[in-house]
Amino acid sequence: MKEKLEALKQAALSELQGVSDPQQLNDLRVKYLGKKGALTEILRGMGQLSADERPVIGQVANDVRGAIEQVITEKQEAFRAKETEERLRAEKIDVTLPGRKLTQGAIHPLSKVIQDIEDIFIGMGYRVAEGPEVETDYFNFEALNLPKNHPARDMQDSFYLTEDLLMRTQTSPVQARTMLAMAGEAPVKIICPGRVFRRDDDDATHSFQFHQIEGLVIGENIRMSDLKGTLLQFVQEMFGDNTRIRLRPSFFPFTEPSAEVDVSCVRCGGSGCRVCKHTGWLEILGCGMVHPKVLEMGGYDPQKYSGFAFGMGVERIAMLKYGVDDIRHFFNNDMSFLNQFARI
Amino acid sequence: MRVSTEWLSDYISLEGVTAEELASRITSAGIEIDIIENRNQGVSKVVVGYVKSKEKHPDADKLNVCIVDAGQEEDLQIVCGAKNVDAGQKVPVALVGAKLPGGLDIKKAKLRGVLSQGMICSAKELGMNDKLLPKELQEGILVLPEDTEIGRPIVEVLGLNDQVLELDLTPNRSDCLSMVGAAYEVSAILGRELTLPQPEKNLEETGNPASDRIAVRIDAPEQCSHYAARYIAGVTIGPSPLWMQNRLMAAGIRPINNIVDITNYVMLEYGQPLHAFDADRLTDGAIHVRLAEAGEKMVTLDGQERRLEPHMLVIASGGKPAALAGVMGGLDSEVTDATVNIFLESAKFDGGTVRKTSRQLGLRSEASSRFEKEVDPAAVIPALNRAAELMAEYAGGAVHQGIVEAGDAKAEAKVLKLSLEKLNRYLGTQLSLLEVKTIFSRLHFPCGDADTGLLDVEVPTRRGDIQLDVDLIEEVARLYGYDNIPTTAIEGPTTPGALTKAQAVRRSLRKLLTHGGFQEVLGYSFIHPQQAEAFTGLNPAAKAVKLAMPMSEDRGVLRTSLLPQLLDVAVYNSNRKQPDLALFEIGNLFHTDEDVLTRQPEESPVLGLLLSGRKGTKQWNTQPEKVDFFDLKGALESILSYLGIDADQVSYEANQPKSFHPGRSASVYVGTGERKQLLGILGQIHPTIQQELDLEDTYAAEIRLEPLYELANSRVQYRELPRFPGMERDLAIVVDEAIEAAALIRVIREHAGELLQNVRVFDVFTGSKLGEGKKSVAISLTYRHQERTLTDEEVAAVTEKAVLALEQTFGAELRK
């Protein structure tokens, strides 16, 4: 019997040597080790053995089974490894092909600039105030010290709806409305972003519709030097720490003294380039100390309170910040323009 | 205002200050100067020559050979082609070696075989603007006055050694619409002395009283506070002196004749417009300043007949208007070459009146623009005298004695009190009393101490813009230099900065939508009236608001919907091979219920969404699908869920907003019962419109933001995670096609009891197997109990109830 087992082992091992695929391997496993396999067949004769022989033959049988199983396992692993290797080879991809992107839109560059400016001023303790786009003549002009027939009304031709109603030409009426809403309470610190409208023929630098951001501070001891300090902090946060400002006297009916504010050129830093027309400076803001009449009409006693106000054009700032050369891009809404702003 | 530096030097020394430096200092003191014009456009070696003789060129019909004395060692032979050249003329001669504007170099040359030693020049060749030249000088060579000195450089003769500063004046600085005003400003900036003309001293009058010839009466004192006149007899009309013509041209005014030039010259000098009438052509010498009568007509200097209105101010003589006060003279009393006697007017007309008339008639002039900004009442008399002085000198006139006038000049300077403490507190500076007084003395504002630290400052009438102490503070600040004001931080209580809820909601929407692939766009607030009519979805009953004077029909009304412009953007991009679009805009719509607007229209903030074409981009491994209704609805559902608005607060109703596909559009509502309100509309754009616009299938929505501001809720309350497994049951039922999914879900929810957690439709289809007008809806139901594992039996029991209810309510059949 022992010889039979040895012969079986030899036969099995020799047959396993020539196995070339997993199916064949499985067939051989069944043939030799299966329930009806050769080994079982031999072991059926165990009953006829003596009690002494049984453990010995049993041991031999186990050894034979072990030897065959080991070879089968090795073969199986080899097949599996080969199979895996083949699968991986087949699965190779061209990693240089483009991926599927997340679909990502962008907020409009003007919204982006407005949000950036809002955030700077919110950080400085300002609230964001809003007002209607259709204004009364009173809030758009008169409450800002621009009575009817004032020559300064020439500065901005307006879109009227009726004799008394017009598309606001500036965000300044929000100042007047806020003052009344605050009912004399101080301090007031607001910025007012929004759409404004002026009768202008559209060209590379003009649009009949554009956006402004207005700022207003009222308190008991607000100085022109505070205005300078505020604007300097703003432009440095907006355009970089090295930005400088320059104030030039100017005229607005609702402020006195009034100033135009230039910043050192955001492109060349002040050394002179095409953007700043080789002056080193860019005009970006109008500002001044709130006119006593405006304070008074807003319900603040000019003897007790003073304030400053400033206003800037959002399109102008966006054009400078992003190097956009034509204001009309902002309202044409060409995707190849707008997509450029889809980034942090 | 164009300020000639040559002229300015009459009043103030500009020694050692270049035009560029001056411009930069004026700019930093508040009047912007962007342009400095050099009157010499590149002329050199051009001198005055005397044409001694002129002969025909032997070989050319159109050329002449002139012998010219140009003050050189020898006479020059010059070939000249101008028709008007003649012996005995004084002319500009470009010598050999001369340079002319445009890079022309003059060389010795032979013209058709004849030697030419230079060139006789036209005004244009000397770089002069021919629009400003007297008509007779626009063609041919420039003929100079007979007394011009031979050999003198032409740049001196024509005043080309001059630089003109273009002052860009803000409306408050009309005082600088005059040379004298500009001189005051420059004097304050440079701190130099002024020398002003003194007509009172220089004017010589004859013995005849002017009042024998003329009289003046004001019938409209509100429109004309002061009217003064002089009578100048025996003038000879002719050209004005060359220096005066040069200065007028430098200022941009064309010389006409001595009388007109003098009125213009004095207007430029004092800022006070004057008018010269031919006294003999006035109906009579008694002048009435009055408002026009309705229907009255007159012919103005430009030959136009004007129909006057009762708000217009006229200068009338003999019952007829002879001039439109401050705007334009009348043709009938115009000064002509035959004029001998002059009625010279200098007056203060009301700015508003002049402005209204000049606007209405479209007549804007140097004079009217000065009156509009209110002229200096103190200049009326000096300007009148100055012009009379010049007419005596340059037109040979005899100035009759006395000024004939009506009204009151009210030319008294006002005195303002200024506190030094306030000035420093206002500016954040620490200026001393002396520093402040020095600045006022440079401005020629006399001032004295009223009290300790309180100044009495006298403001001359020429500075009508200065009304309050803060105006004086600005004067100090601008001359002290804005750059010298320190930079400080605001003192006092701090305030917290924040966005309002509405602002925060809009930011959240922008963030969510852009991250979801939507691109923000910005449209115009004005649309075509037809667009407003076509898209009325959110507010069909309201009316569009019209602009009184739109720039074009396309932009005639305020937008009542964001959709027209979202569609415009879609068309624009689709025409540029960008048809796959996901767009949004946040903006205001305008509605009114009034036929004639009497109050501000309602402005409502709205979110517009548009999807068109396909989702994503086609590439090697992706075949993007067409967008559909449910992409749009899904975006809206995401928005609402992100804003914390429960889905059970939201309902969709298939109805048909205007311009949408009738079967693929809906209105969406928030709230239930009495609190239910319209949130928006959404759906496919009507296929006819899509076709007209040549767009692929396009879906759009308009969502009112006000309900979102109100309902948005950022509060998150943690719910315990389920400890026991849920159980799912799928149902497939067949119902009539018309039955909406929402109705099925509602019935299931009502009958499946509290164990039911979630209901989800996962398949819908129709087909012939189901029968005509039927559809199959597959629904997944999820059950869960918080405290234990559910049994098959209890789940089967509640599902059975739901199925029964579906059968009873909708006649649904369970598919097996």
Overview of the molecule:
The complex is a heterodimer of chains A (344) and B (816). With 344 residues, chain A is an alpha+beta fold. Chain A contains twelve helices and nine strands. Chain A has two domains: 1-91, no CATH class; 107-338, BirA Bifunctional Protein, domain 2, CATH 3.30.930. In chain A, α1 (2-17) packs parallel to α4 (53-90), α2 (22-33) runs antiparallel to α4 and α5 packs across α10. The longest helix of chain A has 38 residues, at 53-90. The mean pLDDT of chain A is 90. Chain B is of the alpha+beta class and 816 residues long. Chain B folds into six domains: 2-39 and 163-190, Phenylalanyl-tRNA Synthetase, Chain B, domain 1 (2-Layer Sandwich), CATH 3.30.56.10; 44-157, Beta Barrel (OB fold (Dihydrolipoamide Acetyltransferase, E2P)); 199-407, Phenylalanyl-tRNA Synthetase, Chain B, domain 3 (3-Layer(bba) Sandwich), CATH 3.50.40; 416-484, Phenylalanyl-tRNA Synthetase, Chain B, domain 1 (2-Layer Sandwich), CATH 3.30.56; 501-711, 2-Layer Sandwich (BirA Bifunctional Protein, domain 2), CATH 3.30.930.10; 727-814, Ferrodoxin-fold anticodon-binding domain (Alpha-Beta Plaits, 2-Layer Sandwich). Chain B has a seven-stranded mixed β-sheet with strand order 27-30-31-35-34-33-32, sandwiched between helices. In chain B, strands 3, 4, 5, 6, 7 and 10 form a six-stranded antiparallel β-sheet that branches. In chain B, a hairpin with a 6-residue loop joins β33 (660-670) and β34 (677-685). The radius of gyration of chain B is 42 Å and the shape is elongated. The mean pLDDT of chain B is 92. At the A-B interface, α5, β1, β2, β4 and β5 of A face α8, α11, α13, α14 and β27 of B. Chain B: Its EC number is 6.1.1.20. Chain B: GO terms for molecular function: ATP binding; catalytic activity, acting on a protein; magnesium ion binding; phenylalanine-tRNA ligase activity; transferase activity; tRNA binding. Chain B: Belongs to the phenylalanyl-tRNA synthetase beta subunit family. Type 1 subfamily. Chain B: It comes from Paenibacillus campinasensis.
